[in-house]
């Protein structure tokens, strides 16, 4: 009697799991063919499974679920960026004025190289505004010299910190208030525009497309070593996400190294007020608050990329990424759910694949092969995993090609695995790290 009761309990448990999974895909899968396939698959599994193998079956179904979520993102979201047809014209069709704003703290050497590139932009109506935030390296002397040399260049000196707001957000707010023109284009002192057409093309997207926000791309310079590959891979995949979700009508972030918007949008939404004390977020939290399907566009033209110098030590890069991950806590709930599904399924796709592979190896060693139902699920999940690998390679590889060959196609599978490991470790570390209350400049 007890054995029969146990059998029924396990059967009910598996029935609930399969039913829940099937209904989840009914609600989230945009394609009717995929929905029908999932229902058929789980129906067959439900009929053939043996309750004593519930753990293995659950692992296999879970693996299939997370791989399927990845397929949905790759096919229906990432493909938008891969095949996006951008306006490649480098000739400006507008003369609307714009202010380039750069906030700098002890960046004399970088500004000495950057400012001549900014004032050399091929655009009729613009100014370059440098916000010198408490620099002690002679930045003010350099700016005095260069403002006399370049008519387009202006600078504002900030002499003290303010307790109610982080330093960079205060500097940006003052810069936007003092900007001569109604639109601004932001970059950092350590960035370099790819061409003299950067300004013209970014303004064209802002004005002629009648948008309030233009999201640009800022890749990191290629250097030897695993750290640099990880930095470039993470930067690429972040861009894949925010470009693709923007094209899907769900914009959620941009990068301050290459971001244009109208000052009216900034002040109408009270600027950085809701996150003025949050370390970082002057770019992504602002975009997260104000960006909509209608007011946001993207720019993938290679002439508009702003190249940045990567961190050279693991400690420096981890400090930078910790700040970015902490800012993500303040995203809108819907954005956190979408990104959580994407990142979680990426990590679990590789983790569960390794676990299933390990179980298969152990069962072969001890001569306990899978049942027919388990083999059915294993082959289905493995096939889906293989398709997912190829699609990721093809679609994200195409995006990488469009984004200045950020990661070489031959490195794409390794990048895929590397990101899965990185996101998993970063997620665990974030859960057990206290939020810092210290103010760093950025």
What features would you describe in this structure?
The protein is an alpha/beta fold and 442 residues long. The protein folds into two domains: 2-82 and 336-431, no CATH class; 98-325, Spore Coat Polysaccharide Biosynthesis Protein SpsA, Chain A (Alpha-Beta Complex), CATH 3.90.550.10. 57% of the residues lie in helices and 10% in strands. Helix 5 links the parallel strand 2 (126-133) and strand 3. Helix 1 packs parallel to helix 3 (54-82), helix 3 (54-82) runs parallel beside helix 13 and helix 4 runs parallel beside helix 5. It is elongated.
How many domain units?
Answer: 2
Which regions are unreliable across 5 or more consecutive residues at pLDDT < 50?
Answer: 436-441
Determine the CATH superfamily of the largest domain.
Answer: Spore Coat Polysaccharide Biosynthesis Protein SpsA, Chain A
Largest sheet: 7 strands, mixed
Oligomer: single chain
At the fold tier of CATH, the topology name of the largest domain is Spore Coat Polysaccharide Biosynthesis Protein SpsA, Chain A
**Radius of gyration of CA atoms, rounded to a whole number:** 25 Å
Structural class, please? alpha/beta
What is the strand content?
A: 5-15%
In spatial order, strands of the major sheet run 3-2-1-4-7-6-8
DSSP helical segment count: 14
Order of helices and strands: HHHEHEHEHEEHEHEHHEEHHHH
The rounded distance between the terminal residues' Cα atoms is 67 Å
| Highest-level CATH class of the largest domain | Alpha Beta
> How many beta-strand segments?
9
Fraction of residues in helices? 55-70%
Q: Overall mean pLDDT score?
A: 87
């Amino acid at each position: 009697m007890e054995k029969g009761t146990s059998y029924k309990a396990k059967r009910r448990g598996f029935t609930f799991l399969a039913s829940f999974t099937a209904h989840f895909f009914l609600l989230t899968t945009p394609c009717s063919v995929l929905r029908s396939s999932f229902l058929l698959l789980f129906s067959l599994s439900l009929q053939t499974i043996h309750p004593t193998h519930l753990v293995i079956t659950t692992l296999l179904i879970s693996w299939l679920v997370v791989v399927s979520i990845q397929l949905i993102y790759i096919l229906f979201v990432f493909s938008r960026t891969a095949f996006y047809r951008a306006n490649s014209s480098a000739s400006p069709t507008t003369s609307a004025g714009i202010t380039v704003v750069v906030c700098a703290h002890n960046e004399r050497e970088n500004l000495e190289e950057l400012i001549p590139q900014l004032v050399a932009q091929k655009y009729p109506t613009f100014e370059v505004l440098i916000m010198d935030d408490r620099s002690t390296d002679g930045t003010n002397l350099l700016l005095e010299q260069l403002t006399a040399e370049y008519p387009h260049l202006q600078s504002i000196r900030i002499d003290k910190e303010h307790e109610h707001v982080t330093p960079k957000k205060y500097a940006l707010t003052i810069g936007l208030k003092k900007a001569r023109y109604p639109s601004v284009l932001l970059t950092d002192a350590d960035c370099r525009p790819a061409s003299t057409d950067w300004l013209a093309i970014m303004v064209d997207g802002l004005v002629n497309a009648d948008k309030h926000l233009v999201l640009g791309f800022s890749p990191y310079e290629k250097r030897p070593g695993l750290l640099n590959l990880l930095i470039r891979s993470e930067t690429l995949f972040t861009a894949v996400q925010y470009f693709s979700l923007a094209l899907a009508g769900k914009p959620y972030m941009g990068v301050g190294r290459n971001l244009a918007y109208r000052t009216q949008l900034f002040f109408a939404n009270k600027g950085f007020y809701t996150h003025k004390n949050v370390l970082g977020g002057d770019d992504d939290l602002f975009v997260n608050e104000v960006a909509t399907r209608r007011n946001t566009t993207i720019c993938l033209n290679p002439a508009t990329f702003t190249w940045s110098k990567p961190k050279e030590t693991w400690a420096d890069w981890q400090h930078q990424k910790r700040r970015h991950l902490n800012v993500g806590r303040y995203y809108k709930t819907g954005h956190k759910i979408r990104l959580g599904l994407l990142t979680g399924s990426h990590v679990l796709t590789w983790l569960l694949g390794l676990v299933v592979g390990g179980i298969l190896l152990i069962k072969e060693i001890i001569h306990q092969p899978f049942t027919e139902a388990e083999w059915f699920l294993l082959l289905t999940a493995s096939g889906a995993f293989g398709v997912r690998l190829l699609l990721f390679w093809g679609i994200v590889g195409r995006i990488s090609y469009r984004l200045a060959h950020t990661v070489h196609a031959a490195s794409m599978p390794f990048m895929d695995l590397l990101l899965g490991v990185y996101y998993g470790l970063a997620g665990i570390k974030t859960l057990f790290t206290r939020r810092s209350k210290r103010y760093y400049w950025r």
